[in-house]
Amino acid sequence: MIDDTQIGTYFLQQPEVAAWPELIEVWHHYAQNAHSWRLPELACQAVGGAIERVVPMVTAVGCCHISIVLVDDILDDDPKGLYQRLGAGEAANFGLAFQSIAYRIVQQVAEEMGWDTVVKQQMLAELIHLNLKTAYGQHLDVQQILTEEHYWATVAAKSTPYYGAGFYLGAMAAGADEATAAQLRQFGSLIGKIIQISDDLADVYQTPVSPDWQRGTGNLAIVYARLAAHSDKDRFEELLPQIDKLAALEEAQQILLQCGAVSYCIYHLLQTAREARSILNEIALEQPLLLQQFLAERIAHLFELMEASNMPLPAELAAELLD
């Protein structure tokens, strides 16, 4: 397993970083919760590569993640966002810096490891896709358009490229062929979709009220309740302006369950998990069990959410999700 200090080395050795202590502080803030940065490491292990080859990719992915979160929190007006302390302008500037560092790290590593021009171009192209696609997804997310088509377009652009790129970059750095890396990108993109839907369910049942309720368009459960035909549709709309009140929130949460919104989210989780498993079965991996376990862990917290909300999943459904 890659040590956290190894990840930071490639970041801290950048000359601009050494002269910018505030940037280092931001790095350490986000490095406390850096689980998703390790996607390249997981991909490397799955294809049987040498771990030391992907340390720079973990750092680059971490830098991209920080840049995305910094800007996303501003756009979402997240009360927990670091921009609340730094200021929106300063946080956005830090985001630019972290994104630029990610590109430089990939370029430097390509030279150090002697990658050929094609591999270097493929790696940089993946970073470009990750950051540009996510930026477009963040743009879609703030439009507040109430259609399911818009919701899925936003998920595809905002929630999936990061996970796909993490697996792709890790596989390529480990020496896998491009076809295998592309399959792992597809698997990672589905992981991103699963995480988004699971987060949607978690957000609507959290207390105090999640910002998703105020926006009313970027959460699959809420979108379903507002668009589907059901007897409580009008009442649901009446509750949204007063959703900060606990009684209104609890009633709206109950409507989500009764109208089929929760079941609809679970249906899409099940379909996506099936698709992800199907892709895994097609990839020739040295350690496929690692990714099978990773997939199972991504949906396991759904069970915890359902149990906590007194909505346990049927045993046969739980078994199929984790199979």
Present the secondary structure layout.
Layout lengths: L3 H9 L2 H4 L2 H11 L7 H9 L7 H22 L6 H4 L1 H25 L4 H25 L6 H12 L1 H13 L4 H27 L6 H5 L4 H8 L5 H7 L6 H14 L1 H22 L5 H21 L6 H8 L1
Helix pairs in contact: 1-5, 4-10, 4-17, 5-7, 5-8, 5-10, 7-8, 8-9, 8-10, 10-11, 11-16, 11-17, 13-16, 14-15, 16-17
Provide an overview of this structure.
With 323 residues, the chain is mostly helical. The protein has one domain: Farnesyl Diphosphate Synthase. 76% of the residues lie in helices and 0% in strands. It is built from 18 helices and no strands. It has helices at residues 4-12, 15-18, 21-31, 39-47, 55-76, 83-86, 88-112, 117-141, 148-159, 161-173, 178-204, 211-215, 220-227, 233-239, 246-259, 261-282, 288-308, 315-322. Helix 7 runs antiparallel to helix 8 (117-141) and helix 8 (117-141) runs antiparallel to helix 10 (161-173). The chain is globular and about 65 Å long. The mean pLDDT is 92.
Order of helices and strands: HHHHHHHHHHHHHHHHHH
Considering DSSP H and I runs of 4 or more, what fraction of the residues is helical?
over 70%
Number of helices: 18
- Main CATH class: Mainly Alpha
End-to-end distance: 26 Å
Instruction: Name the beta content range.
Output: under 5%
Number of individual domains:
1
Give the full name of the CATH homologous superfamily. Farnesyl Diphosphate Synthase
Overall pLDDT score: 92
What's the gyration radius in Å?
Answer: 20 Å
Structural class call reads mainly alpha
Topology, number of strands: 0
CATH topology annotation = Farnesyl Diphosphate Synthase
Instruction: Describe the sheet with the most strands.
Output: none
- Which geometry do the CA atoms define? globular
Low-confidence stretches: none
CATH architecture field: Orthogonal Bundle
